[in-house]
Amino acid sequence: MKHISSLLLLVFIITFSMNAQQLENSTLWKISGNGLEKPSYLFGTIHITCDASLDNDIKKALDETTQLVLELDMDDPKMQSQLMKGMYMTDGKTLKDLVSEEEFTAIDSLFIKQAGMSIGLIQNMKPFFLTSMLYPKMIDCQMESFELELMKVTKEQNEDVYGLETIKEQLQVFESIPYKDQVADLIRMAKDNLEYDKATFAEILEVYKSKNITEMLNMMDNENNEMTAKHQDVLLKDRNINWIPKIEVYAKQQPTFFGVGAGHLAGENGVIKLLRKAGYSVSAVL
């Protein structure tokens, strides 16, 4: 009986360990099975980087697919005008309504130093968009984008670009996050003139380079990044779940190259495991 109990415990430990294993370190995944005539590919991008060169595996996957689907249809000529309409706070709110006078002065100083303008000129914009204006300042190089590189190859192949979300749907994500939570990251940035954020983003770039998508997700849990840590359901989980039926439709129509932020791939509610739960084989391209 003792030996049987020990054996059962061992089986439990092994099973638990297998289930708890991290996904392989890869940013490129092959989607097949579940009735797909040809495989599609899922690629985890990073939206801002110093080097967005596409490696041979990515180029091969682009050659094997016949359309590109990003988070947004970045080829939509109406995207810019729709984005502009949704960038501003509602009910006449401004940044001064959300922060103390001391915090406002610090943020104003930050924008003068980093963006060459006073925050007073744009203080009616949603705090998230104010924060995103400073993202290019977090890297000491010319900013590159995987999405733009993927679109470039797609255009050369005379293929179409689509989106998993409309700009209206993506803007609604940031409308559902309280402005007070959005502004917390902006206040943090102003306190040390981006020093913490530059160091953190350097770490993110190294983790991305190692293709450790599980760690990419873990880094979003950092309590210092208040908006992403508090609102992962809205920023990741809910969107991932909404994407799955859309991914299925695109992949069944024709072999598709999907490009989404790498933070969306890992985790129990990440795109990889959600696709597996839907019956697809999703394997790392190593």
TrEMBL record:
Keyword terms, alphabetized: Signal
Keyword check for Signal, yes or no.
yes
According to its UniProt record, what is one Pfam family this protein matches? TraB_PrgY_gumN
Q: Which top-rank group of organisms is this from? A: Bacteria
The answer to whether UniProt assigns keyword Cell membrane to this entry is: no
User: Which InterPro entries has this protein been placed in?
Assistant: TraB/PrgY/GumN_fam (IPR002816), YbaP-like (IPR047111)
Q: Which CDD domains match?
A: Tiki
Signal peptide (UniProt feature, chain positions): 1-20
Name the chain's protein.
Answer: TraB/GumN family protein
Q: What is the originating organism of this protein?
A: Pontimicrobium aquaticum
Give the lineage: Bacteria, Pseudomonadati, Bacteroidota, Flavobacteriia, Flavobacteriales
